[in-house]
Request: fold
Amino acid sequence: MTGTGFDREFTLDAPATEEAVRDLLADLQARLSALGVSAALRGRVELPVAEALNNIVEHAYGAAGGGPVRITARLGARHLCITLRDRGQALPENRCAPHPLPDSNGSLDSLPEGGFGLFLIRHLTDGMSYRRENGENHLVMAFSLGPGGHGRRG
Amino acid sequence: MELHPTLHDGLMIVTVNEARIDAAAAIRFKDAMRITTENGPAHVVLDLSQVTFVDSSGLGAIVALKKHLGKERRLDLAGLTTEVDKVFRLTRMDTVFDIHRDATAAIARTAG
Reply:
């Protein structure tokens, strides 16, 4: 593991189902805590990872259901990187397009009940990238450890 | 889905006694809330003080509940914990709901 800039790393595997996502998020929190990751950073990590896992369950696998998902977490001096891999369908055009916030200014009937996931992932990470490779989706989410974290908040 | 409703002078407070309203719980939450609020007072306050995590599925379920109650009734929120408050602010859904500090504040404001 030398030369990568990341000195601590672990991997979690699970089936992509709603119930398994809950356990996976709890495992991730416990493993990050054991590595000494602060409660504040763990709080920042939980929602974007949850949204990305929900997307894998609902969209990548969808009706096909329950294929494998792997989380790899790598902790370095300045960043925590979380990579999700699955073998479901690719994102449209094999890319993660910019995702605006759904409009909540309309009438009661028109209030959005979904479409927040990718917006939240982009907004709550300090960097993200997506690629399709060998029939797998790879989503990488980076979180800055320093006080400069939350770089996208402004 | 454990919901605890209490009535206060034309107001129903529903306390959600669950740590998470997530994708695994969203449909159960929505169904249980519809049953709990059926034939109840027009004004409903959802007390989320025991809830530490809401994802976009949970948020969608809360919005769907507001739509289900319709224009003649009203759904407010109370007791948002740190991470839950963040979800509502980031998605601007804090502008769609009246949000009370806690259930006691919601009761006081309605009585006043």
